[in-house]
Structure formats: C-alpha cells, structure tokens
Amino acid sequence: MIELDSALVTAYAPDPAGGADRVVRLLGPVSLQLAERRIAIIGANGSGKSTLARLLNGLVLPASGTVRVDDLDTATDGRAVRRRVGFVFTSPDAQIVMPTPLEDVALSLRRLPLSADERDAAARCALARFGLAERAEVPAHALSGGQRQLLALASVLAAEPDVLVCDEPTTLLDLRWRTVVDDLLAGLDQQVIVVTHDLEAAARADRVLVVDDGLVVFDGEPAPAVEHYRALMAAVRA
Ligand SMILES: Nc1ncnc2c1ncn2[C@@H]1O[C@H](COP(=O)(O)OP(=O)(O)OP(=O)(O)O)[C@@H](O)[C@H]1O
C-alpha cells in the first residue's frame, strides 16, 4: 500500500522583485493511505495532480513528511520503489527510449532473470498483448500516437510493477485508442492510480481524489467527487 504522511512538496521560484529565489509550496501537506484497486485523481490545470502522482513513485520527493510504498521510503529506496510502482507519462515519447518496440520492452525486462532468447520471447508476448506483435521491429517513431501510448504501457507493465500510476494516459488519444487503453487499464490485475480530466473514466474508479491549489480537497466516492470538482470549476467561472 502507498502511504503519504504529511507529505509537502516545494520548489524554488524566482523572486519577482529580483531577490533570491523563494521557496513555494506545490503540494501538501497531504496524508493518504491508498489501498483501493482503482483510484482517480482529478482537478483543474495546475492544481497539483501530476506532482501528487510523481510523489507516489519517487519521481518527486517530499521536502518534509514521508511517502512509503509498503516497507519502502521513496526518499531512501527510490530504485526499489520505482520497480514496485510503474509510471506512465502523458506523452509516450517521454518514456520510449529504444529504436524499436521490441528493444524498448526488452529493456524493461532487463532486471528479470531471463536469457536473451527468453527476454526476446517475453518482449514479443508483451507486445502481442497490446496488439503490437506486427509492429515489433518497426521504428518506434513510425507508430501512431495511440500505438506509442500502448508501447509505453507495454514497456512499463513488462517490468511487472505491483502498482501502475498513469498521468493522463489517454489525453492524446482519439476515441478508439482511448477506449482500448481504458479497457486495458480496467482489466489489469495491478492497483491503478490515474490522473485524468476524463470524468467518465473517473466515475469508474473505486475512489476519487480531487486536488485544488496543491491540496486534496475531496476524497471519496466518484459521484460526489465529480460533483465537488464541477462546483469548484463553476466557482472559478463565476
Ligand atoms: N519543478 C517545479 N518548479 C516550479 N513549479 C512547479 C514545478 N513543478 C510543477 N510546478 C507548478 O506546480 C503547479 C502544479 O503542477 P502540476 O503539474 O502538478 O499540475 P497538474 O494539476 O498536473 O496540471 P495539468 O492538469 O495542467 O497537467 C503548477 O503551477 C506548476 O507550474
């Protein structure tokens, strides 16, 4: 289980008056225990959703407080945490690093005790699961946006994380690919925590966190969470 205890995220920001950089609060303090299988994080642009998501696998570290994944502290056990908690970025291009899909998935498998042949077979199997068997050896840049998103997911899942954190994984996708990715995420055995602007997707979660101005301002069932978010948005427009 992922557990945040008074986690506070700060950053340095330039002083408009030209003085020394100032410390600004980006998120928190946040205390949460994340045990549900399907959790959605919603909120306005710039509210702190990605910062919260990145805290969960140690991509962002708290300035104070702690974030723990089971027995691991993200501040001191970052590598082990990232093996346990996979992260899918909004843009697949942020995480596809190898020239072909086959090599990209094989890279994710490097920590598993497999021979070269076994790794190749496992990578092909992972690609087939995501409908990419025929595209295993084409240049990754020749894939469509939707196929690249599926490749990013395949690569992250190939490493067999216990938890998958996705930051707006369907934002760049058309309706067909969005449905494919949504269905795929819904069918995973792993715990899935998704940052999303898609309120229909959020409505299917077991639990929804609403983030506003760097704080979790609502935490509960999807219907009241979405209502809370709509009220926040209406207040901004008023
Ligand atoms: N490293 C950083 N240094 C300074 N400010 C940052 C840094 N990272 C994020 N921020 C700021 O923190 C705030 C929250 O950013 P974050 O990316 O978490 O928002 P978000 O809710 O995911 O937004 P969006 O829906 O637009 O993706 C924003 O105002 C952003 O500019």
Automatic annotation (TrEMBL):
Question: Mind telling me which InterPro entries this protein's record contains?
Answer: AAA+_ATPase, ABC_transporter-like_ATP-bd, ABC_transporter-like_CS, ABC_transpr_CbiO/EcfA_su, ECF_ABC_transporter_ATP-bd, P-loop_NTPase
Identify one Pfam family in the record: ABC_tran
Which terms in the Gene Ontology molecular function aspect does this entry carry? ATP binding
| Keywords carried by this UniProt record | ATP-binding, Nucleotide-binding, Transport
Q: ABC transporter domain spans which residues?
A: 2-238
Q: Which family does it belong to?
A: Belongs to the ABC transporter superfamily.
Check the record and name the PANTHER family matching this protein.
Answer: ENERGY-COUPLING FACTOR TRANSPORTER ATP-BINDING PROTEIN ECFA1, HEAVY METAL TRANSPORTER
- Official protein name in the record: ABC transporter ATP-binding protein
Give the organism the record lists.
Answer: Cellulomonas edaphi
